[in-house]
Design a protein that fits this description.
single chain, mainly alpha, two-stranded antiparallel sheet
Length: 508
Amino acid sequence: MTDGKAAAAAQTDGTARTDGAVQAADQGPLTFRIGMLGALIAPFVFLIGVIAYFVIFAVFDMNALTASGLAGLIIAALFSRKYSRFWDAVISGVSSRPSITLLLILLTVSLMSALITATDVSGGFVWLASTLGVSGGVFIAVIFLMTCAISMSTGSSIGTLFTAFPIFYPAGVLLGADPLLLAGAILSGALFGDSLAPISDSTIVSASTQRYRRKVGTAEIGGVVRARAKFALPAAAVSAILFLVIGSAVSPGTDMSASDIIDATGAGPLPLIMLIPIALLLFTAFWKRDIFLATTVGLLSGTLLALLTGLIDFSDVISANDDGTPGGFLVAGIADIIPLIGLGIVIFGMIGVLQEAGIFDAIVNAASRSAFARTPRGAEVVIGLGALATATVFAGVNGPSMIMFGPVADRIGAAAGLHPYRRANVMEGFTLGLGSVVPIVSSFLLIASLLTQGHEGVPEVAAPAIFLGAFYPLALTLVIAISVITGWGRRFEGEGGAESRTPVAPLS
């Protein structure tokens, strides 16, 4: 991350370890009174919390998951044969160089996401669609593409959903779009940016968990995005066509004029100027492959441009509210990401426990005993199915699920010689694909359904129904599955970490 440059030096077997991890390992393996199953207590308690809050209580709050995970760690520690050894393992997981780097990146990119939200870029896209006179099925396809652009800009699927639904959904229904497909298009666009944006937590996590074996570092974010585009863009193109064709067939249309829609939403063209700093951010990310530098360029240029154009004033950057609380998009960005940071810390702690207890070794060893899993295609199948299962357990919350499964995918894929880019993209494709929209348990479907409610004169859409209209994650799963089966886009790690089309002799 910044990208590979910020990764820790690797041992001969490729395992990056901090001083804390080495110290923990020197104390011997972590053992429990009930055997290796003790290491699974914390994830099991966490899973109960996920089901309770997301499915039973319908509460979509990262803090609730953090509390569940922390409770799991506290309970699991009581079953450890050496209490202090357990917490040394937790600390080793949290304090690793990749985990600290990831948490810092999430903090940094949250500021850019908050700036985009504060300048109402989504309102600019509503104005554009209304001015172009699109409606019905055409509007659904256009909104999908616009939501893709917004999510690419913010790097947050959840943030995009909460930004786009209040504007696009009621406006789209007013323009005669089919409600189910419109909700599916907004959700699909949000997931597209989450899978491809360089500043997305999903992109960052999928890259940072995949380590090189022939050089120091983890997969560079710019390189992962470049390799991922060949899968994400075809899936998006297929989705756009489906939204256009099916949407045109089932949407009733409308007699409202563009001016009526603009008056109803208060949208205008000026926020579209913020596409300039977004373009600068993306260009810097691909050019320098340094997400810290890219975010700095985007944040500074975006703040200056927003101030000069009057989209925000200085109080929108930093201020104090009447109730004595801090205001401005800088504080808002940090406040939005802190719950995910807390959850990340807890999950990294669980990973440390699983690592020191030998769970990851047991999984990798079991896979290595299978001749199928030792082949490139077999390794990718195992990675894909494992990522899908983990995402389902995490209710489709992709970042944390990849934090948990990433180390397993890293070792299984590396054993088959797969390049870090390839490992990251197979894992992410199944996670952001079907794994994000599994009916009943998907937090994305539940959130999308929730956001269709409360609009006067606009119908609500049930979560299971939205699954049928979420074309992008389904198309992405199909594209990645075809890639795994046929070997299209498969790359191996060559000398110095270079991409190779053919397998390279294993390290001695």
